[in-house]
Write a structure and sequence with these properties.
196 residues, Rossmann fold, alpha/beta
Length: 196
């Protein structure tokens, strides 16, 4: 029911989204901020990854679950058996097909009884070719932020239980995640900040 896990008061964080959206990279960068991107194994997640980490004396159990069709069918097994306080849903904002389907999944999760008390953080990841990034320059984040704003506005119209108090979002390039970004996410995990 979206509460704190009673066995040790650690907060359960579910990280999901379509395959190749950047979930595992986010997970690995978050738990090991000092590691260079070149040192991180970026193989697709088969099944799930799990670790416990601490921030400001609060423990977080992070569950990174694969987004391939087979593993996705097991998402309910996790959220029906663990009480998640936060769901981080990672979407590749540059892939139109991916984000259209991903928003349907977000809507389903937002309305699941077991997640009705959980907060949601939609992380729009920018995955595009480096040359295109250079061409777009400063306009890149604005273009994708405008697209994400449009998507979130359409999601908000879908009659989601307490949408404004439960859902926040941000556009990031996970490849360039900084310590300040990880600090931002840590604060989101404990409910101190968000972005809309």
């Amino acid at each position: 029911m979206g509460g704190i896990n009673s066995k040790d008061d650690s907060q359960q964080v579910l990280i999901v989204g379509p395959q190749k959206a950047g979930k595992t990279l986010f997970y690995k960068r978050f738990i090991d901020r000092k590691k260079d991107i070149e040192q991180i194994n970026l193989e697709p997640t088969l099944g799930f990854n799990h670790t416990t980490t601490k921030y400001e004396n609060i423990s977080f159990d992070l569950w990174d679950i694969g987004g391939d069709p087979l593993t996705k069918s097991y998402w309910p097994t996790f959220y029906r058996n663990l009480r998640f306080t936060l769901v981080v849903f990672v979407i590749n904002i540059a892939d139109e097909f991916s984000y259209a389907n991903a928003l349907k999944d977000v809507l389903i999760l937002l309305n699941e009884e077991e997640l009705k008390l959980a907060r949601f953080f939609i992380l729009f990841n920018i995955i595009i070719d480096e040359e295109i990034k250079k061409k777009l320059g400063d306009n890149l984040k604005k273009e994708f932020r405008d697209r994400a704003t449009e998507l979130m506005n359409s999601l908000k119209e879908c009659n989601v239980h307490e949408f404004d108090s439960r859902v926040s979002w941000q556009v990031f390039d996970i490849l360039r995640l900084t310590d300040a970004d990880c600090e931002f996410f840590s604060n989101c995990f404990i409910g101190d900040t968000g972005s809309k």
